[in-house]
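We modelled the chain as a single entity of 110 amino acids. Its sequence is:
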Amino acid sequence: VQLQASGGGLVQPGGSLRLSCAASGVIFSENVVAWYRQAPGKQREWVAGITRGGNTNYAESVKDRFTVSRDNAKNTVFLQMNSLKPEDTAIYYCFNQGYWGQGTLVTVSS
């Protein structure tokens, strides 16, 4: 199983980024896929998730700003992040069935 996260980068406050998590060895549409993040000096925290049926859930800190979605044909999960804030700066990881992606760094700074 391999999860490949990508799409991070440097963005100004108020900007947007879309993260992707592509999978091999596992079928995303059959399981819950979650996004986590870990800011410098802090513990890893859950950000959002999408269920097999397509239901989504979000941490309060990102609700109404982030959207998680899935492309079954590409076996990829996305995290659309809008209205980014400096406190969103972190390494973002995707997680599925005990497997972690390698993380992608998001830096929100002017």
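As a brief sanity check on the tokenised model: The longest strand covers residues 17-24. The chain has a mean pLDDT of 95.
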